[in-house]
Amino acid sequence: MSAQLPGVQHAHKALSADDPHEIGGYRLHARLGSGGMGVVYLAYTPGGRPIALKAVRADFAGDPEFRQRFAQEVASARRIHGLFTAQVVDSGVDAPTPWLATAYVPGPSLHEVVQRHGPLPVRTVLLLVAGIAEALQAIHRAGVVHRDLKPANVLIAEDGPRVIDFGIARAADATALTGVGLRIGTAAFMAPEQAMGLPVTPASDVFALGSLAAFVAGGVPPFGAGAESAALYKVVHEQPDLDRVPYDLRDLLSWCLAKQPGDRPTPDGLISAVQAHPAVGHRLEFTDGWLPHQVSSEISGRVQQPAPGPAPVPTPTHHQQTLAAPAAPSAHTATGVRPDPPAARRARRRGRRLPATALAAATALVLVGAAAYYLDAPEEAEAESPSASASHTSPPVSRPAGPSPSASSSAGFKAGYADAELTSPDAGYEFDLRTGKVVPAESAAWYLARTQTEFVAPEDSDAFIAAGNELSPADCVRGVETGPVTAIAFTALSGGRPFCIRSADQKEIAVVRLVSAAPGGGPVTVAVSHHRRTG
User: Fold this and answer.
1) What is the pTM (predicted TM-score) of this model?
2) Each residue of 58-90: pLDDT tens digit?
3) Are residues 450 and 424 in contact, defined by beta-carbon separation less than 8 angstroms?
4) DSSP string of 9-74?
């Protein structure tokens, strides 16, 4: 599987104390994502245009072979000029930390769109196929084969798709995968010749486009999403499973997915086929309505998202002060001792339900905050009914207003793991916040559980939901001291709004974003970053 910088353009995150503030003369404003290859930053050119600046991880930067291949790949990528590609703007191949800057696309990846909103309509899929095929024309004209075209490497903008991931990922793959028979790419979207370790050609990218389109139209990869070995076998020996793909698309996608490269269409032929398709009507135009409303609303919200500044310090309202005062202090809150024997932890793990009046006040506060920060918030495909805000956690501990001395900056915390994407299949599994893993319920010491409609934090931990879409450790400390929450309903987390959990000993903080939540108690996916207090 390809090692790469993330294709998903996440919501902006404030720079941490460990992040640089400038690379190659470009001002860094926020983190867009991070992964095995390094960190992607939102930066600005001297003239004020936003760019995505990808900084390579230190161990790759110290590998001479990687640096040589990186320089070659960047030189190739700079020759690519297409309206449906993320244009390379600048690079620092000889810098102590190599970096690559590309045009910034304020939109989600196709993988993220399908995960959050489900399969896309036939006309949308056809337009995506044509746009990506035009991107492949530009890529192939430059003498480059993408080799890892997949949903995570296609971003969606208001005016069409953008194909990304040139240079860094391929240089890393080529450096790491030097043995005979090893493959570069992602198994579920590989062409048969690529899966067998044979030379790849532009036709290999067309096969990948067919697999990508089948995923977007049907919600699952045509050769399965299981183990890599199983996917590779199916790619080479079995026909694609297109049962979930609308009938109107099957002939076109089957043509792309032909086992022999010579039997597949060229990008030119694909565009002509899309133009002739009845669902398009000879109009290949990315105008209003080419995307479903919930997807276009999400993109519009990202376009309007301002560059991050200092997070606002919540000011307790009368309702918050009322909610923050429990009817009677429990033993552990009165004494400051937080005993946590397993039996007691299991007994209180699901907590108590808030009174209806307190619940109404809490829900009103969430809605007011959402209106202030998300004037054009995206519609969530998995949104629950208003009753989904019901709390199953105990009331918060009353605390004096104002930040604690430890809340002055994020410098007091050291980053642990970052943006770990975890999926709980059902309520029988929980997230182990300390290790960044999914484990059976009742087995993690510091956990985040989930029901059908909300997250459940340990009673002896503090929680806070950000007012905007930025949340640093310092913001979390301020938040739990001035505006703690007990209800973490999925409906309160739309638009990428994060929340945090602070451990009972106040030494650890987990910042969590809801990625997707299937209705009816199905899988719930989160992205978690862990921080530990220093000193």
Assistant:
1) 0.55
2) 888 888 888 888 888 888 888 888 888 888 889
3) yes
4) -PPPB---TTS-SEETTEEEEEEEEEETTEEEEEEE-TTS-EEEEEEEPHHHHT-HHHHHHHHHHH
Give per-residue pLDDT as tens, 6-60: 333 345 778 888 889 899 999 999 988 776 678 889 999 888 889 999 898 888 8
User: What amino acid occupies position 77?
Assistant: A
Phi-psi region of 475 (alpha: psi -120 to 50; beta: other; left: phi over 0): alpha
Known catalytic membership, residue 148: yes
Distance CA 147, CA 166 (A): 10
From CA 431, how far away is CA 424, in angstroms rounded? 7
Closest CA to 79 of 148, 137, 143, 136: 143
Residue whose pair of structure tokens reads 């095995």 in the numeric block: 36
Identify residue 289 by its one-letter amino acid code: G
- Selecting among 148, 419, 462, 475, the annotated active-site residue is 148
Report d(CA 78, CA 339) in Å as an integer.
59
Question: Within a 13 Å sphere around the CA of 281, how many CA atoms are in the beta-carbon half?
Answer: 4
Which of 282, 212, 281 is CA-nearest to residue 253? 212
